[in-house]
Amino acid sequence: MKSLVARVAIISVVMLGAAMSAHAANLMGPTPEQQKRHLELFHEGQALWPIYCNHCHNARNPAEFAPYQWDQIIMHMRTVENLPPEDAAAILEYLKTAR
Ligand code: HEC
After folding, report:
1. Other Cβ atoms within 10 Å of 25 Cβ, number
2. Among 4, 29, 53, 80, which one has the highest count of C-beta atoms within 10 angstroms of its own C-beta?
3. Rounded to the nearest whole angstrom, what is the distance from the C-alpha of residue 57 to the centroid of ligand 1?
C-alpha cells in the first residue's frame, strides 16, 4: 500500500514537472525551427493567395478580417475551390499574419 502511494506521488511530481516545462516553453515563444516553418508557410501562402483567391472574386485583403474569421473563411473557401490542404494551410498562415 505504501509503495502504491509513493508511486502515485512520484508520478504526480513527474507530470507536474512536465506540465510546467511545457508551460515555460510556451512562454519563451516559438523556437527557431517554428519561426522558420512559419516564414516558409507565410511566403508560400503569399505566392498562392493571388492565384487561388482571385479566381472567383477579387482576392480579399488580409487586414479585412481578424485571424479567427480567416479560420472560418478558409474552411469555407477551401471546399468551394477544392484546395489541397497544404496550400490552404499556407494561405491561412499568410492571411492571418499579413496585416
Ligand atoms: C470557386 C470560387 C471561389 C474561390 C476560388 C474563392 N472564393 Fe471566396 N467566395 C466565393 C463565393 C461564391 C463567395 C460568396 C458566397 C459564399 O459565401 O459562398 C465568396 C466569399 C468570400 C469572402 C466573403 C466573406 C464576407 O463575408 O465578405 C471572402 C473573404 C472570401 N470569399 C475569401 C476567399 C479566399 C481567401 C479565397 C482563397 C483561398 C477564396 N475566397 C477563393 C467563391 C470563391
Report:
1. 11
2. 53
3. 7
Contacts for 94 with CB less than 8 Å, ≥ 6 apart: 41, 42, 44, 45, 46, 48, 49, 62
Give the total residue count for the chain: 99
Cα 44 from Cα 46, distance rounded (Å): 5
Residues 42, 74: one domain?
yes
The position carrying cell 487561388 is 52
Q: Who has greater pLDDT, 27 or 24?
A: 27
Task: Check whether residue 48 and residue 85 sit in a common domain.
Answer: yes
**What's the one-letter identity of residue 83?**
L
Q: How far is the CA of 19 from the centre of ligand 1 (A)?
A: 41
**What are the backbone angles phi and psi of residue 54, rounded to the nearest 5°?**
-100, 5
